[in-house]
């Protein structure tokens, strides 16, 4: 059975002081998660450990500065993959050498949905 995408949620997060890309990414993921309620999981009795796939894409200006394993660990359910790409924004503060980091997150959830007979 092929897993079908059933939801795509988007979020943004930031670290206004300190330039922490992982913190901004985690906040973007939490923002996306808080826009969703997957009530259908219980209704369809889907096992979230084996039948739910969570594909996370994080966009930041310096992808190598995101700890993808910490982002992965922040997801409560599913078989999670995290991809970090160039995106988001860095807002310079040259007077204080304190850039603001803005991250974007896209969370796609795929499930193997049983076919009605």
Automatic annotation (TrEMBL):
Keywords: GTP-binding, Nucleotide-binding. Transmembrane segments: none annotated. It comes from the Bacteria. InterPro entries: CHP02058, Tubulin/FtsZ-like_C. Pfam families: Lin0512_fam. PANTHER family: 50S RIBOSOMAL PROTEIN L34. This is Lin0512 family protein. It comes from Reyranella aquatilis. The lineage of its organism: Bacteria, Pseudomonadati, Pseudomonadota, Alphaproteobacteria, Hyphomicrobiales.
